């Protein structure tokens, strides 16, 4: 078993990003500005926001958090997003999911300007991704593919099972895997037997948001696993994979924390720089 050193890969990427940001500042007299939109205090959102703040501080990126109470209405939130869309000093907007259950998640995602959609949640940008047109790539899926490729994983012809069908990880990473010529199975809430599929998998991408969902008896020897789950149990962050036991059978695996999350934030800033440059070239 080998643990994929996402921290080291992310460190190398961030060194190149620091250089890019310095060049941007030299050329334009400003640095990219990221706006986080957070509703309520969902534990996974709180954890992720803290990690983004740390990354932005490290890379000298401007950051502001628009924090709203959980009783904000859908209409009010859309109005706030519209204000952020119109603010020229903001170059990228990321909204923290999950949102309150009564909200139309698609409607909120599509209220972010496609030009500032740093995590590719707007339908226009997702459509471009699925059509193979140039666009920003969702941060976590982008980080997963980058980390596995850096570990010399060849996706072509492999049986890959994605557990979780969310708009930010499950669905887009499935598309990226298809682009890499993998054979992809997407498991979701109504899949009758996730275990049946994971036992056949050469590669598993865990993105369901359920702690310990993938257990040792659900994987075959030599499996490759990327755990994109972020769960907070008793104040500790853990993934969707029972790491201690599953790692005994895996040939490659990412830990939580210190795995996919480290890559996600690097990809977030990479996307932010891409959007900044597009805005400046308009």
TrEMBL record:
Residues holding NADP(+): 164-166, 230
Keywords of the record: Amino-acid biosynthesis, Histidine biosynthesis, Hydrolase, Methionine biosynthesis, Multifunctional enzyme, NADP, One-carbon metabolism, Oxidoreductase, Purine biosynthesis
Domain of life where this protein originates: Bacteria
Protein EC: 1.5.1.5, 3.5.4.9
GO biological process, one term: methionine biosynthetic process
Record SUPFAM superfamilies: Aminoacid dehydrogenase-like, N-terminal domain, NAD(P)-binding Rossmann-fold domains
Stretches assigned to the Tetrahydrofolate dehydrogenase/cyclohydrolase catalytic domain: 4-119
Molecular function as annotated in GO: methenyltetrahydrofolate cyclohydrolase activity; methylenetetrahydrofolate dehydrogenase (NADP+) activity
Reaction(s) catalysed by this chain's protein: (6R)-5,10-methylene-5,6,7,8-tetrahydrofolate + NADP(+) = (6R)-5,10-methenyltetrahydrofolate + NADPH; (6R)-5,10-methenyltetrahydrofolate + H2O = (6R)-10-formyltetrahydrofolate + H(+)
Annotated metabolic or biological route of this protein: One-carbon metabolism; tetrahydrofolate interconversion
Residues in Tetrahydrofolate dehydrogenase/cyclohydrolase NAD(P)-binding domain copies: 138-278
Pfam families with a match to the protein in the record: THF_DHG_CYH (PF00763), THF_DHG_CYH_C (PF02882)
GO cellular component: cytosol
Complex and partners: Homodimer.
Function comment: Catalyzes the oxidation of 5,10-methylenetetrahydrofolate to 5,10-methenyltetrahydrofolate and then the hydrolysis of 5,10-methenyltetrahydrofolate to 10-formyltetrahydrofolate.
Family: Belongs to the tetrahydrofolate dehydrogenase/cyclohydrolase family.
Record protein name field: Bifunctional protein FolD
Name of the encoding gene: folD
